[in-house]
Amino acid sequence: MSNSTTIKRLPLRKKRGPFLYFILPAALIVGVVLVFPIIYGFGLSFFNWPQVNDGTRAFINVKNYMELFKDNEFWHSLFLQLGFIFIAIPIELIIGFFVAILFNHDFPLSGFLRNLLLLPVFILPILSGLTWKLMLQPRYGAITYLLSLFGMEFPQGILSDQSLAYTAVIIQDIWRMWPFMFMILYAGITSLPKDIMEAAEIDGAGFLKKTFSITLPMLRGTITTAILLRTIDALRIFSEVFVMTGGGPGNGTMLFSLYIHKQAFEFGKLGYASAMAVILIVISLFFAFGLVRKNMDIDTM
Amino acid sequence: MKMKNRKKIIKWIVFISALIIVLVELFPIWIIISSGFKRDLDIRNSNPFDFQFNLRSYELVFQKSDFVPSIGNSLIIGLSSTIISLIFGSMASYGIARFRFKGRKGLSYSFLVSRMVPQIALSVPIFILFDRLSLTDTHIALILAYTSFNLPYIIWLLLPFFSSVSPSFEEAALVDGCNKRQVFWKIFLPLTAPGLVVAAIFGFIMAWNEYIYALILTGNATKTAPIAVNGFMGQYAPKWGQLAASGTIILIPIIIFTLTLQKYIIKGLTAGGVKG
């Protein structure tokens, strides 16, 4: 390159060669281990494809999808996975919001306590599932024991009842993830302009008034982002429930993700499982695009 | 004076409420740590709040199980996938931050969006892919599989770090006769070391915590730590003491990172959308 071109402003943004050098390796890797599997899975969803080739592997058009829509277990599992979104996320949001308001005060050790709250967010999902399983064991589980002090006895164990087990996996998720909501909302609250709050206080606004007519409306953008992030996340829930209940008892906690795993790796119906995977991907992409459109601009991040 | 007293009281009420919230929230973690110091027998046969300190479970975990090799596997896989993702991710992030080319937005958004696809939805094709290549139960398979979510994540995590560096350093280096590749490796990357460290730590944690791909791609030779920990559930009777002891050990890096990385956590959690 000659010297005359290098002196110009932003010479980095010329020629084609260099950017390929930077982008190509990542694009290739993502292409092979991410994009290719997505396309492959989409293709597979139109095939009957038993894991062990018994001679029945064949293109069957949309038959997997037709069967899926008649499969009650499919609808049930989809319902349970979406239940996470509609039950767990609002509760996480409410707890996170009020704890964020609490932590917005000045008090001793607040930074350290805030740090500690993040531990559950980063704990291994399987460890969370297993810990809750231990705590819910009949007789010797810590939570079972505490409940028995209040006269609530579960001789068969909490996880052996369908609706209690579903409640338990949701509570497990709330435990792990409300601090995530808290962190995002706390960051939002502390960045709100202080003078508005002070003005409201001088005007005699009480706690409720301040919270619901000032803080909440000003946090609307933050809250939408947090909900979208958590929704995408809730569609990914698998490991913690897989180790905690394995989908049982019966199909009481058989989330969509667990049902995909069951069809693929227990029944070996790879084509059928792929059709379900396609549906899960479509749902996820719907929310992912929502998130991207809303607030992820590569040039302003 | 009255006003001041009132403020003081509020401060203490807030402090005590916050303390109670934190203690309740950490209760399950305390359960897992304390159960590690009990024997399986004591866990089953006593009140969960009885505590007799005992190292038997740790002894068993270290001497008689596949947990120690599984930690090795987790470290090899986690570190390799993090390093690969870091090298190629920082290059791509730099390319997106510094060059204006056709399809730039489309490419970066597809990196981002494809990462948000649930792993379980990719488990079937990923399994077939590595099965065809005869790579199941090898480190390579998991390293590549983990790179599939770490690489796009790191690209997005680094973007704001990279965009905030003024191009004047690179321009100066170009004038001095470096080419663009040298500028990136020798001038730019060292400037962004803090961002790289954060990206590496988040990438490692996600690989460390991963379970789905490990479940479908590993056998006895490459079992990762989460698989080994869940293995203590056993076929018939769970070995809770050993499960808790090994669970505590794999929690150590998480505890260290969480308590030291506070400053960057919001960025880490929201970059590229979601945590692993």
Structural class by sheet pairing and helices of chain B: mainly alpha
Mean pLDDT of chain A: 88
Order of helices and strands of chain A: HHEEHHHHHHHHHHHHH
Report low-confidence residues of chain B grouped into runs of 5 or more: 272-276
Largest interface: A-B, 103 and 114 residues
**Count of the separate structural domains of chain A:** 1
Multimer state: heterodimer
The major sheet of chain B is characterized as: none
Tell me the total number of β-strands of chain A: 2
CATH topology of chain A: MetI-like fold
Task: Give Rg of chain B in angstroms.
Answer: 23 Å
Any idea what the radius of gyration of chain A is? Answer: 25 Å
Number of domains of chain B: 2
Label the CATH architecture of chain A: Orthogonal Bundle
What does this structure look like?
The complex is a heterodimer of chains A (301) and B (276). With 301 residues, chain A is mostly helical. Chain A has a single domain, classed as MetI-like (MetI-like fold, Orthogonal Bundle). Helix content of chain A is 70%, strand content 1%. Chain A contains 15 helices and two strands. Chain A has a two-stranded antiparallel ribbon. In chain A, helix 4 runs antiparallel to helix 12 (220-234), helix 9 runs antiparallel to helix 12 (220-234) and helix 12 runs antiparallel to helix 15 (270-295). The radius of gyration of chain A is 25 Å and the shape is globular. Chain B has 276 residues and is an all-alpha fold. Chain B folds into two domains: 2-58, no CATH class; 66-270, MetI-like (MetI-like fold). In chain B, 76% of the residues lie in helices and 0% in strands. Chain B has 14 helices and no strands. Chain B has helices spanning 2-36, 40-45, 56-63, 67-98, 104-115, 119-132, 139-163, 168-175, 180-191, 193-209, 212-217, 225-231, 240-260, 265-270. The longest helix of chain B is centred in the N-terminal third of the chain and has 35 residues, at 2-36. Mean pLDDT of chain B is 88; it is low at 272-276. The chains are: A mainly alpha (301), B mainly alpha (276). At the A-B interface, helix 2, helix 4, helix 5, helix 6 and helix 7 of A face helix 1, helix 2, helix 4, helix 5 and helix 6 of B.
